[in-house]
Each structure stands twice: as structure tokens, then as C-alpha cells.
């Protein structure tokens, strides 16, 4: 079984804020001591950090739930609870993080040490020292901590390579990688010998270096899930130059030019942007009989079917076995890389807007629906946050929450929808009677 894993779905939960405390100052020589309950501490964030030592998402196969610690509760003497430490989750370079619900890209983690907060911890609840007023100098009100952010994430690993080797199975990609780098990919005389991407570093005679990825062989229909195509086509997206390896000996009875067209069609079908990447055609196995004649026919077909105003891709005849033509190929690749910029992987429509952790002023503060049992159901981010941060063990806090609902217009809205005295109203699992 392959130990390479390049996709994962995980759950992350930031820590809740600590609850505020209700306490009163009681000292021997201090008359009329007032409120003295401190605030709760901040909940821990869940933070992704890039670790260049990781190569796959295998760690997320068995550990799919990540929960940060909650903040400490507030204490007496006005002391704040301690904030929780952030939960650090290490991911490999080249990891794209998406929100599973919306499909939007949250971040693309490519630099070693790069950090991104994927779930923010809740703020601590206020202690009763915060609620003292001239009218109510000794309040018995405190807040629960704010719930931490919780979300489901999709992780995709797209290997970091400057150059990608593409082509049909058994055209010699793994052999080429093994002779131009120190990589030792599995090589065999059968299809799909390569079942995971292999990476290697190339250093040219002129001293330039670049990373090359040997990607599992594509076949027709790869973009629709045939063979291993769908699983590994994503790894071509980060490359800036594509080396299109073609078996010029036609040893398997296929036409080299038809192979060239078929692979390009799969790249285009998977992601049209892949066709923006410059290609170099690598005419491999030139040490075999008929290769020279096949290359001549290939060039004629390519020229005949190419736009007369378009620049024909460079073609380099090589033999991985005899190492013929490799120096020229690598120098040309390095030169092309120098003048090829990075390609934008995601446009603005795919990226989630910069996170805002307050309330959307335009969004409704609450929504009203009716359950099958005729209970009125209240929902909405602002309302649910107020509910979660209310300490229902304290009568003053309950009365404060009732005033907040009234101020938001909940009573009027329920009345307008037909709610009558004694009807049940539900927020989450909490139920109360509507009083007209």
C-alpha cells in the first residue's frame, strides 16, 4: 500500500473563552466591598505551521480531530483567567486549505515556517467587576466565555516543483528523473510503476538548480478519473515548466503525435490554466530503432497542425539510457524557468474573503422559524452568541438576556408572526414561554 497521502478532511475546534466570575470583595477593614470577579482567559487558536520535513498528509489519516484548550475561568480579587496556548498543527509545504462547507480556499501554505490561524479561540467572558454601575454597584452578572470557532477543512497537498514530467505510462519519466537527479524512483517495464509523485533536484553544469517532479503516468480519461490521473493531476498545478516526455520509438504501438495530443487534452480538461505553462517536448528513447524516423514524422505533424503565428515548442531528442542529449535539455529547461513567472493558482472567486470576526451589520440579527411541534425557533449568529455567553445560573444575567432580546426586536417579530401568550420558544436546546 502506498504511504503517500495528498488529501485529507479534518475537524478543527478552537478553544472556548473562560467564563467570567461573580465575586465580591470581603475584607475586614473595607466596608461595602464591591464586585471583584475577574474575566475569563482567551481560548487557544488552531494554527497551521509549515514544516519542510513533512512530505505527505499521512498524519491526518489517523488523527482527524484537532481541539485547542479553553481559557481559564476568571478568579476572585479581579484576577483574569490565563489564556490558553495555541494548538500548533504542522503541515507539509504545498498544502492548500479549503473550508469544506463553502469550498473556498482559506490559504495556500508554501513557505517553510509560514503560519495561518484556521480557527480562532473565543474571548473570555467578563466578570461582574465589569458590570458595576452607579445604579447597580453590586451586580451578580457575569458572562460565559465566547465559543471557539469550529469548522471542517479540506487539505490538499500539491508538491512544490519547478518542473513537472508528464506523459503516458512507460515513456521513461522515472528513468529520466533517476539519471538527472539523485532520486531513486521505482522503475519497471510495466504500466503505473510510479504510483506516487517523486521529487528530485537537478543541478546543471552552469550551476543552476531546480526541482523536478515525476508524476504518475496519465492516460486518456485521466481528468475524469481513469487510471491515477485525477489523484495526481493536481501536483502539476504548481509547476512553471512542463517536460512532456514522449516515447519516440513507439514501442507500444502508439503514435507519438497522438500521445502528445491526448496528454495535452487531459491537462486542458483538468484545468485550462495548465495550458498556460510552457512545454518542452522530450523525445525519449532515441537509441531505439525507428525513433529517428518517428521524430521526423512527429515534427512534420506538429508543424502542420500548429498555428502559423504561434511559436512551436522546443523539441529535445534524448536517451535516458545512454544519457544522450541530457545536458542540452537541462540547460534549456533552466533558461526557460528563468523567464517564466509564477502562475496564480487561485483567482479571487476561489479565495475566502479576509476573515472578519465581528458581526456583519447587514446580516439579520436573528431568524424565526417554526418546528413541527409548533415551537418557535430562534437562530442567528448574533443571537446565538449572546445566548451562549449568558450565565443562566444567575437571575440577573437571565433578565439581562431577556432585555437584549427585546432590544433586538425579537418580541415584536414573534408577535408579528402570530406568537401567542404561552407559546414555546426554543434557542438551541433551551426552551422558554413567550409572554405577550
UniProtKB/TrEMBL annotation:
Binding site for Mg(2+): 174, 194
Binding annotation for GTP: 167-174, 192-196, 214-217, 284-287, 319-321
Classification via Gene3D superfamilies: GTP-binding protein OBG, C-terminal domain (3.30.300.350), GTP1/OBG domain (2.70.210.12), P-loop containing nucleotide triphosphate hydrolases (3.40.50.300)
UniProt-annotated location(s): Cytoplasm
Residues covered by the OBG-type G domain: 161-338
A family per Pfam: DUF1967
Alphabetic keyword roster: Cytoplasm, GTP-binding, Hydrolase, Magnesium, Metal-binding, Nucleotide-binding
Subunit structure: Monomer.
Name the UniProt record assigns to this protein: GTPase Obg
Species per Swiss-Prot/TrEMBL record: Streptococcus sanguinis
Encoding gene, per UniProt annotation: obg
Amino acid at each position: 500500500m502506498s504511504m503517500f497521502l495528498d488529501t485529507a478532511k479534518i475537524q478543527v475546534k478552537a478553544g472556548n473563552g473562560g467564563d467570567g466570575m461573580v465575586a465580591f470583595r470581603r475584607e475586614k477593614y473595607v466596608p461595602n466591598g464591591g464586585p471583584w470577579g475577574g474575566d475569563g482567559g482567551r481560548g487557544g487558536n488552531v494554527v497551521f505551521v509549515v514544516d519542510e520535513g513533512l512530505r505527505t498528509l499521512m498524519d491526518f489519516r489517523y488523527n482527524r480531530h484537532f481541539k485547542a484548550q479553553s481559557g481559564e475561568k476568571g478568579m476572585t480579587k479581579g484576577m483574569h483567567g490565563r489564556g490558553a496556548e495555541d494548538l500548533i498543527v504542522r503541515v507539509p509545504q504545498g498544502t492548500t486549505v479549503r473550508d469544506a462547507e463553502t469550498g473556498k480556499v482559506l490559504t495556500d501554505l508554501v513557505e517553510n515556517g509560514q503560519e495561518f490561524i484556521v480557527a480562532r479561540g473565543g474571548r473570555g467572558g467578563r466578570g461582574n467587576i465589569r458590570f458595576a454601575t452607579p445604579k447597580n454597584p453590586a451586580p451578580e452578572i457575569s458572562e460565559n466565555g465566547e465559543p471557539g470557532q469550529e469548522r471542517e477543512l479540506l487539505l490538499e497537498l500539491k508538491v512544490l516543483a519547478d518542473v513537472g514530467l508528464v506523459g503516458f505510462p512507460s515513456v521513461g519519466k522515472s528513468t529520466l528523473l533517476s539519471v538527472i537527479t539523485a532520486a531513486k524512483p521505482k522503475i519497471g517495464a510495466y504500466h503505473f510503476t510510479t504510483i506516487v509523485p517523486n521529487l528530485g533536484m537537478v543541478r546543471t553544469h552552469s550551476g543552476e538548480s531546480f526541482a523536478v517532479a515525476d508524476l504518475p503516468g496519465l492516460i486518456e480519461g485521466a481528468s475524469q478519473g481513469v487510471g491515477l490521473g485525477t489523484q495526481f493531476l493536481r501536483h502539476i498545478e504548481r509547476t512553471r515548466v512542463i517536460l512532456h516526455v514522449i516515447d519516440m520509438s513507439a514501442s507500444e504501438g502508439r503514435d507519438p503525435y497522438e500521445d502528445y495530443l491526448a496528454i495535452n487534452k487531459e491537462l486542458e480538461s483538468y484545468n485550462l490554466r495548465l495550458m498556460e505553462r510552457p512545454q518542452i517536448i522530450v523525445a525519449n528513447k532515441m537509441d531505439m530503432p525507428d525513433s529517428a524516423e518517428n521524430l521526423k514524422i512527429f515534427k512534420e505533424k506538429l508543424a502542420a497542425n500548429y498555428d502559423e503565428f504561434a511559436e512551436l515548442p522546443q523539441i529535445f531528442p534524448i536517451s535516458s539510457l545512454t544519457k544522450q542529449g541530457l545536458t542540452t535539455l537541462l540547460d534549456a529547461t533552466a533558461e526557460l524557468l528563468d523567464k517564466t513567472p509564477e502562475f496564480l493558482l487561485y483567482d479571487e472567486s476561489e479565495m475566502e474573503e479576509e476573515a472578519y470576526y465581528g458581526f456583519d451589520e447587514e446580516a439579520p440579527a436573528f431568524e424565526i422559524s417554526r418546528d413541527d411541534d409548533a415551537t418557535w425557533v430562534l437562530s442567528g449568529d448574533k443571537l446565538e452568541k449572546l445566548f451562549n455567553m449568558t450565565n443562566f445560573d444567575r437571575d440577573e444575567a437571565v433578565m439581562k438576556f431577556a432585555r437584549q432580546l427585546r432590544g433586538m426586536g425579537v418580541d415584536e417579530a414573534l408577535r408579528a408572526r402570530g406568537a401567542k401568550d404561552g407559546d414555546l420558544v426554543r434557542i438551541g436546546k433551551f426552551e422558554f414561554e413567550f409572554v405577550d
